[in-house]
Structure formats: C-alpha cells, structure tokens
C-alpha cells in the first residue's frame, strides 16, 4: 500500500505526507473511507474538493447504507433469481426466458433437470441451445457460462472450452440448494454491438430511489463488455470490462473509464473499435426508465435497488434486481460521490439522513420490533 501512495504522489505531484494526512482524515471523518479505497478512487488527485471526497463511500459506508435501505424480509426476492423473474414476469416486466433449472425444486411450469442423464437429454435437444447458465443465487457473474453446442456427450462453451457433460455437471454440483438457471441467451442491440465490437451483453446498471413522493432514477452506469467474458460485470476493475456514466434523463454517455486506482484511465473512444463512447446514446432509454420506475414499486423493501438491464434489438430486459448493488460502480464512472447532496435529500425525505452518520445500537424498536436503530423506520 505504501508503494501505491508513493506512486500516487509522483502522479499527482503532491507530497507523500499530504496524501497520507488526507487519506487518514477521510478514514476517520465523513464516511470513513478505507486507505486502499482512497487510491482506488484516485482521490490523491486535486480535481475534487476535500468536502466532496468526504462523501465518497467505501465498503464500510456501503454496509451502513444497505442496513438502512434493504428490508431483511425482502432479501430473498433479490437473492433468488427464479423468484425474482416470476414476480417481474407476473407484472409484465420483460426478463430472459428460463428454459430449465438444475439441482433445485421449482414449480412445475419450469422444466427441471435433476441428474446427469437428464442434463444430457436436455442438451441433446437442439431447441435448447444455445443456452446461458448462471446460479439462481449468485453475484459478479461467477460461474456464468454460455453453452453454444452439445451432442449430448460433450458441451462447447462460448470461450472455446469443450468438456464432457459429466464434467460440466460436476462443476455445477456444489451443493447450493437454489441451483442453476438455464435461460435464453441475449445479444446486445446492434448499435451497442457496433460500439463494443461484440454481441455479448453490455448492460446498464440503474439505481432508483423509492421516495415519499414517488420513484426517482438517481444513477445509471453502462457496463461495457470487452468480449473476453460471458458477463459484463466490472468486478472492481478485475474483469477487464469498462464503465461509463450515463445521463439519467437522456441516456447519453457522459464519461467512460477502464481500471481502478493508479491504472484507471478515462476514455473518449472504445480502445478496440475506435467508436466514440462519450456522446453515445443508449437505445430504448425512455423505455428503460419506464421499466425501472414501474418495477421499483414491486419492491417496497428495496429503497435504492440496482437494476441490471440488457439492451437487446427487441428492447430492454431485466437481468436482475440487486437489493442495492456495489457503490463503487457509480463513483468510478461519474467521478462523483454516490452520497451527494441529491442522495442525502432523498434520505432526508424518509428521515434517514442522520442514520448514515450515527452508530447502530442493539435496541429493539418498539415501533416494528426489529433490532437496531437503522431498522426502526420500516413500517411493517
């Protein structure tokens, strides 16, 4: 970490002691940003005021925000994608079609695969392929793969890997009782494919906030798939994918970046295709806004969810609803704090702003009988 600070001093032209003092002040004031997070968000640069830097949130602040804004009773609707899709489809909100589930008990309207033999039979049917496979309970796209072909004995994945059906099943038999989803594969809208050079999904993460006077769209980040993975997840910069800030009113990209910390760079054009990133208009933007504003009302237990939307030729589809989502995506993309004045005003509407900066006691609320002061505001 010290070497990172030394390098940051060289890059910024600021004395090392100045960076260390500022980082320590941020660690013990404001939202108590971590020393490594100071580097990750490039706060050693002097293009942002110290007051703004105090609003940058890291893992500590995110845990507090999630404690305030996520209802514990509602978490399963985000954690289990089968339940999530069932709810969304019942409300006419578009999602990918589930072809089958594996190693999990589900309603009979969903085809279910229980064994290696049934898997071989499923994959032998050409109408079931290609097929995108992901955990019903999962995050960061871990384990997600696209099966392109199968003869019933072997499978060929989109990354070129071939393996036996038995080996593929063994790789998914990890004992998790919510199992796996086999769903229709999606491709990016033709304009996005032209921009990124790949048909693999580059989706958009949209944050909404359920205020007392209605739903507001607060942030939107375009997750730019570089084509090396079957997922567009940023993974705190580890995936190699890029991020872009989106104007929430128009759907226009206003800023794009790759990497984090000392390696982070701003981009005007896509490094492979040469197409302009800044100024690009996301297709179907007003339809996306309508979907997330309407869909937010189906999740009263998530006050600020993060919606992952795939933008396809036939329109947007909801990939998942995160109960909150990673706060770093917004801060990297916009180079602005997530907890800005507008967000604090939304918290204040619900009487939550002070909770962000207060400790969490262990008292049981007489209002709703929940434990902890951050849970006191829930009305049920």
Automatic annotation (TrEMBL):
Alpha-L-glutamate ligase-related protein ATP-grasp domain ranges (all copies): 80-335
Protein name: Alpha-L-glutamate ligase-related protein ATP-grasp domain-containing protein
Lineage: Bacteria, Pseudomonadati, Pseudomonadota, Gammaproteobacteria, Alteromonadales
